[in-house]
Amino acid sequence: MPFTTITSRRALVFNLVAALFTGWLLRFVVGLEPVWWLVWLVPAFLLWLALRLDGHQARWLVILASAIGATANLPYYRLVMPDVAAVAVLGAQTLLWSFTVMASRRVILRYRSWWTVVVYPVLWVALDTLMATLLPDGNWNSLAYSQATVLPLLQVTALGGVAGLLFLVTLVPAALALGCTYGRRLPCGYLAYAAPVLFTLMAYGYGSWRLRQPVTGASTTFGLASIDDAIGRQATTAYTANILQHYEAHVARLAAQGAQVVVLPEKIADLSPGQVPGWQHRFSRWAARNRVWLEAGIGLDNSGEQTNLAWLFAPDGRLSAVYQKHFLAPPERDFTAGTLYSVRTIAGLHYGLAICKDMHFATLGRAYGSRRAAVLLVPAWDFDLDAALAARMTATRGVENGYMVVRSSRSGWLSVSDAHGRFIARRASSAIPGSTLLVNTPVPQQLPTLYTRTGNVLGWLCVLAGAGFLLAGRRGRGTPAR
To answer: Mean pLDDT score of the chain, rounded to an integer?
Structure first.
């Protein structure tokens, strides 16, 4: 057998094994609980693999690795949507990774210059921005959220939002891939290799400084209570009464321990219009008897028009606000979305209302930042598997806009996070008798942020730049991409 044939077969086997291994590692990058430091490294392997192979082989091996990585979330997709839709989403995630890597490869190979290090992060931010704007689930599970546990880096979102953090977290792997592919042969390569290090150090330094700033404000005690069991339209009287008795006891106990604001979870019950007065009277009585602000989530079915609501009751029992959920989860696609925002003044501070998935969207989070909210009260209902991700996405809205988030979830976390994304306290929800959380913490005025003032400027600049890079990859005069 000719030596060249043996060599080519060995190379093919090596590349296939590399793709399989990279795909396996990618599962820890795109999963619901990603390993934050792998997010900085694994995409570099994938891009390096694409750069060193010819176009046909690179394309299929990148698709293979991306598909393997995407399967990390298949059990979750099957939990929240039909199997056909779950497979379609998995395919879309595979294509997203493949397109980004292969489009970056084309520009890098065509121009082979130091500035091509920004192509990969620009394309990621551009696509992330478009998804956040156009898709019903937005940029759910953006790579940026993988850094939510790295608090110094998370502070970047106060400047540039998710786009700023995503740019940083994809710039480093692009530099690593270029360095492994070209080394010193890249013209002015030192710029491509040094800039990501400098930007990362600057970001970490800024975040560390921001985290050291003192938190001042009047102390407020928050109480959270959640019972995973739901009250459906067909629930028996005994079943409903049992759950409500536990909620009533939780509210009373939290109030006795000093709670001033109590938050219950999303859609405690699905009601018909005829049931609304009785339920509102019940919550009103709880709030007045315990002298607390009380928020509760309710589902309402009015002759087929379904809405997801949050009711806020004042300590005198008055219904202070009714908020309707804006962004609807996959099981709620037939619900009517809300359009109005709700802000109330409690102890001299602005409190905003939102529900669960609303906080996955930076536009809604910024809308409350623009209204100078100091605290957001968020009833929620998660799917167990996504409990950590949902809580961290919500906390990120607080960092972007400088406010605290009090989130009470069923099948998720009860949590209080501050304007820097720190979880002051958190606890997993549970089935009846349920879980409670009591948190006493200083509550400052809203911390002004650049992101609240300017919005996603970086994201839309990357959309424009990304379009330019795609055109440049096809029309440039440099060395043709293989």
So the answer is: 95
Q: Which two tokens stand for residue 306?
A: 């379904």
Listed by start position, the domains of the chain span 3-212+457-475, 218-443
* DSSP summary character for residue 195: H
- Please report which helix (H) or strand (E) contains residue 363, including its range: helix 362-370
Q: Has this prediction a pTM greater than 0.90? A: yes
- The reported pLDDT for the residue numbered 37 is 98
265-295 pLDDT per residue, tens: 999 999 999 999 999 999 999 999 999 999 9
* Residue 45 backbone class (left: φ over 0; alpha: ψ -120 to 50; beta: rest): alpha
307 with 322: CB under 8 angstroms? Answer: no
Q: Which residue has the tokens 């102890």?
A: 347
* Strand blocks (E) in 128-230: 218-226
Nearest to 369 by CA among 454, 443, 304, 305: 454
Pull the structure tokens for residue 428: 């997993």
Question: 101, 94 in Cβ contact below 8 A?
Answer: no
Find out whether 386 and 144 touch, Cβ atoms under 8 Å.
no
Strands 305-313 and 375-381: unpaired
Up-side HSE of residue 232: CA atoms within 13 Å toward CB? 3
Q: List the structure tokens of 402.
A: 């400088």
218-443 sits in which CATH class?
alpha beta
Contact 359, 405 (CB under 8 A): yes
pLDDT number for residue 480: 46
Which carries the bigger pLDDT value, residue 478 or residue 162? 162
Query: Which tens digits make up the pLDDT trace of 396-440?
Result: 999 999 999 999 999 999 999 999 999 999 999 999 999 999 999
Burial of 82 (0-12, 13-18, 19+ CB in 10 A): exposed
In the structure encoding, which two tokens stand for residue 482, read together?
């293989």
Give which of 118, 72, 124, 76 is closest to 98, Cα–Cα.
Answer: 124
Q: Judge whether 311 and 407 are in contact, CB under 8 Å.
A: no
Q: Which residues contact 23 (CB under 8 A, 6 or more apart)?
A: 64, 65, 66, 67, 68, 69
Contact present, 46 and 65 (Cβ < 8 Å) = yes
The three-point CA angle 54-56-62 to 5° equals 90
CA dist 426 → 286, 394, 415, 439 (Å) = 24, 13, 4, 9
pLDDT in tens, 282-328: 999 999 999 999 999 999 999 889 999 999 999 999 999 999 999 99
Phi then psi dihedrals of residue 297, to 5 deg: -95, 140
Percent of the chain exceeding pLDDT 70 equals: 97
Quickly list DSSP for 122-140. HHHHHHHHHHHHHSTTTTT
